[in-house]
Design a protein that fits this description.
heterodimer, A: alpha/beta, TIM Barrel, eight-stranded parallel β-sheet, 16 helices, globular, B: alpha/beta, six-stranded mixed β-sheet, 17 helices
Chain lengths: ~375, ~500
């Protein structure tokens, strides 16, 4: 794994922690955990989530190695009972909460820090049919050095491309610490046989992808076939090997916040390292209330004895002001543990330039304009 | 960055909790470097506070003959201004001015003309809303976020709403041509100075009454700014009169024989006195008094929003809200989970400078109120309830109280029965819906209640059985000018807001 030059050993530590091991993770593919959990979980139907969470020992470390949550994935019935036992989301309340957080006033030093952090959290993305090696090279150069006029400007977290361009991106970013993320699994619709999705995943990993952004089968999820979604995520996770798995829920197609919460837990139980809102190909893409619900899910998953899972809103975040609102929501929902590129990312392309303009303004005291940042 | 992980685990151990959200930068120094919000103070420059204020009678500012009082900024204890104390003679003059305006101008004016003035006032409030929000925050101690996003928008909305009624009274359901009462004597509290003023003045004027209003002695400044705004709107002299002062002024006002209508919002104790004073007279009375509202959380509630709702119900305006959800009734099966989430959320409350745009909880309005809160909290501890306060640094000067929650509270404790009127929550549990309803209703008050459940049928069944003027479903402390508000029993009588609110100011 490439080291991120701007993070320290301690900050990077989570990346090396245990969960990804297929088979032992809660969301690992069906194995002894699931067999052992067996039928006991069925009795928890009704309100399993909160009972389970309450019954679990209070973890005194962020990442415990005992994961009783595996009981929830013992069978299709247990999984359904667990997901439907999660507390509901009140739409009005959730939207009011983010609206209020949106009024936070982040100025001066706080703004500078937020801008810097947001730049470091960007997955600079190009996912077009028209993508070429040249386009990816140019994007990679931008990722390494977003502001050519200011060497103190940090690099972004990753570059996100289609699988066939991973090799190019990898070559261009060698030694930079910027990771290469690849979408896979028949992105963006996910409508292909599992073998094809796994083959695509393996291809991207073999080409050097550090991170895989997969899409879930929304059709199966909406039809209530949670087990099928679980199996697919677990299988892709296994195919990822050492690469990190981001699971795209495509919240614009799940529509309700209850679905978003259930899909978040499903993905985490199945082994996701990150949960991600959207492909960017469906409207609406990332929204603040959806992100709030997902952030509550990663927070609660850790508190219930699971791992620490990252979160990535993607699509539709275009301004520094928006990005700062997201950081505020992260800060006041999950706390500062998640305010790190290892645990929170922005999937975006045009956002970077706005962040750079704002950053230049913070330093210079005046706005320069779009011609003082590069167009890629 | 390097401190992040150790910082977290140290904090988690300290708090004995698991929670990642514990870390608002200011209360967790180990993580301060990640993303501490820099101070974001709203500028005071927009507000001009005079060293002293007179009474507003007959469209002019006239000196008071009953002496003077000082109003302080509760966040700093700085004296803001001196204001006149209206004597009985001053009250007499104000009532006479209101009477003259009523008889000669306002009651004769067509509703459509009165509406124009009310619309003009509403627009002026919107135009001056930033100034008024800052002034309210300075004089009351409440955070600018609330005055800016809640108080002032609602104040303007009330004037707009009742402006719309002024020429439609014959369609309000009170007969073909309902008549006004005459002069309304109105006494308002310090917790929402300008909003309570709007609740009182807007319907009174819309119906054709004139008013003499007395603001609370700790928060007279926005009412005096409103007086000036009335002149700016060219409101005929005497239609609105503002007399400042303390209890004696209020007593003189409500007892004045020239008042046709008495409207009071404030404590149950004072409300009783007013009811006694006007008993047997022809005065029409509405009282909006105290409360000890229950917020009922069932085990199928939307948990995260319920936590937000509990926060809003008791920490909004520092809990100095008559309809505050000061009793949390939580179903026993989710008590631990809910309390854990509530404490985690309480740790993120930002307590401090009311003018900082990121402040969630401001200052307690007065030293006297702080003493009352402190006394009741001490009683709660002495009676054996378990106290937990959010860790926060309180400023050295001013009146402050940290957001506090009491667990192991039993129904006999004073903190479960008496209105604390501060940021103090008492948690009780229940097992069945019947028990929840019984416990919620077990109070002499009956102003408001909240119910949290995702099950619609239960929501309706429980709401129907709660004896409270307002029941909020999966939300709390939501106000709208079109929605009536008011209490049962010791929480008062009469309704304010909407078409219902017109009745109090019409001769029907």
């Amino acid at each position: 794994m490439d080291s991120v030059s701007s993070t320290t050993e301690a900050a990077r530590a989570p990346h090396t922690e245990p969960a990804p091991e297929p088979g032992s993770a809660p969301g690992g593919p069906p194995g002894r955990d699931r067999a052992a959990a067996g039928e006991t979980a069925v009795s928890e139907e009704g309100a399993p989530a909160r009972d389970l969470a309450a019954a679990l020992p209070v973890p005194d470390r962020p990442v415990p190695d005992r994961l009783d949550l595996s009981a929830a994935t013992g069978s299709e019935t247990a999984l359904r009972g667990f997901l439907h036992g999660l507390p509901g989301v009140d739409k009005v309340g959730a939207e009011a909460r983010v609206a209020r957080l949106g009024t936070r006033s982040i100025k001066t030093t706080a703004k500078s820090r937020a801008l810097e952090l947001a730049i470091r959290m960007i997955d600079l993305t190009t996912l077009e049919g028209a993508d070429t090696a040249g386009k990816v090279r140019s994007l990679a150069a931008k990722a390494r050095r977003p502001d050519p006029s200011d060497p103190s400007c940090p690099a972004v977290a990753a570059v996100c491309v289609y699988p066939d361009l991973v090799e190019v991106a990898k070559r261009e970013l060698r030694g930079s610490g910027v990771k290469v993320a690849s979408v896979a699994t028949a992105f963006p619709s996910g409508r292909s046989p599992l073998e094809v999705k796994l083959a695509e995943t393996r291809f991207a990993v073999a080409a050097g992808a550090d991170e895989i952004d997969m899409v879930i089968d929304r059709g199966a999820f909406l039809a209530g076939r949670y087990g099928a979604v679980f199996e697919q995520i677990a299988a892709v996770k296994a195919a990822c090997g050492g690469a990190h798995l981001k699971v795209i829920l495509e919240t614009g197609e799940l529509v309700t916040y209850d679905n978003v919460r259930r899909a978040s837990w499903l993905a985490m139980l199945a082994g996701a390292d990150f949960i991600k809102t959207s492909t960017g190909k469906v409207s609406p893409a990332a929204t603040l209330p959806v992100s709030l619900v997902m952030l509550e899910a990663v927070r609660d998953f850790r508190a219930a004895g699971g791992r620490m899972v990252g979160m990535k809103p993607a699509g539709g975040i275009r301004t520094a002001k928006d990005a700062i609102k997201y950081l505020v929501v992260v800060n006041e929902t999950c706390g500062p543990d998640w305010l790190d590129p290892d645990w929170f990312r922005f999937g975006a392309s045009s956002l970077l330039n706005d962040l750079l303009m704002q950053r230049q303004k913070q330093a210079a005291g005046y706005y320069s304009g779009p011609d003082y940042v590069t167009v890629d | 960055m390097a401190q992040r992980k150790p910082g977290h685990s140290a904090r988690a151990r300290q708090d004995g909790g698991t929670d990642p959200g514990s870390a608002v930068a200011r209360s967790a120094p180990g993580t301060a470097d990640v993303f501490e919000y820099a101070p974001a103070p709203e500028s005071r420059a927009i507000v001009r506070i005079s060293p002293s204020y007179d009474l507003f009678i007959g469209g002019r500012f006239v000196p008071a003959t009953g002496g003077a009082l000082k109003t302080v900024n509760p966040a700093t204890e700085e004296v803001l201004a001196e204001f006149g104390v209206a004597s009985a003679a001053d009250v007499d003059r104000a009532v006479a001015a209101a009477r003259a305006a009523y008889e000669q101008v306002w009651s004769r004016m067509p509703g459509s003309e009165r509406a124009k003035y009310l619309f003009r006032i509403a627009r002026l409030i919107q135009e001056r809303s930033r100034e008024l929000a800052v002034l309210e925050s300075i004089d009351n101690g409440k955070p600018i976020r609330e005055t800016r996003d809640v108080d002032l928008p609602l104040v303007a909305a009330h004037f707009f709403h009742y402006a719309g009624w002024a020429d439609k009274l014959s369609h309000a359901g009170y007969g073909p041509d309902p008549r006004p009462l005459g002069v309304a004597a109105q006494v308002i509290p310090w917790n929402f100075p300008l909003l309570m003023l709007a609740w009182k003045i807007a319907p009174a004027l819309a119906c054709g009454n004139t008013v003499v209003l007395k603001p609370a002695e700790t928060t007279p400044l926005t009412a005096l700014a409103f007086a000036e705004l009335c002149n700016q709107a060219d409101l005929p002299p005497g239609v609105v009169n503002i007399v400042t002062g303390a209890g004696e002024t209020g007593a003189a006002l409500v007892a004045h024989p020239g008042a046709d209508k008495v409207a009071f919002t404030g404590s149950t104790q004072v409300g009783r006195g007013i009811a006694r004073a006007v008993a047997g007279s022809r005065k029409k009375v509405t009282l909006e008094l105290g409360g000890k509202a229950a917020n009922i959380v069932f085990d199928d509630a939307p948990l995260d929003q319920a936590v937000e709702g509990v926060i809003d119900s008791i920490f909004f305006n520092q809990g100095q809200v008559c309809c505050a959800g000061s009793r949390l009734l939580v179903q026993e099966s989710i008590e631990a989970e809910l309390l854990e989430a509530l404490r985690r959320r309480m740790r993120t409350l930002r307590v401090g400078d009311p003018l900082d745009k990121n402040t969630d909880v401001g200052a307690i309005n007065s030293a006297a109120q702080l003493a009352k809160i402190t006394e009741l909290v001490a009683a709660g501890e002495a009676e054996g309830a378990e106290r937990w306060s959010a860790p926060c640094e309180l400023p050295g000067t001013g009146y402050w109280f940290a957001p506090t929650v009491f667990t192991n509270v039993s129904a006999t404790h004073r903190i479960a029965r008496e209105e604390i009127f501060g940021p103090v929550l008492s948690v009780l549990t229940f097992r069945t819906p019947e028990e929840a309803v019984a416990k919620a209703n077990n109070t002499p008050y009956g102003l408001s209640a909240g119910v949290w459940t995702e099950k619609g049928s239960r929501m309706l069944a429980v709401a129907k059985r709660l004896r409270a003027g307002v029941v909020w479903a999966n939300t709390f402390n939501k106000f709208d000018p079109s929605s009536p508000f008011g209490g049962y029993r010791e929480s008062g009588y009469g309704r304010e807001g909407g078409a219902h609110g017109l009745e109090a100011y019409l001769d029907v």
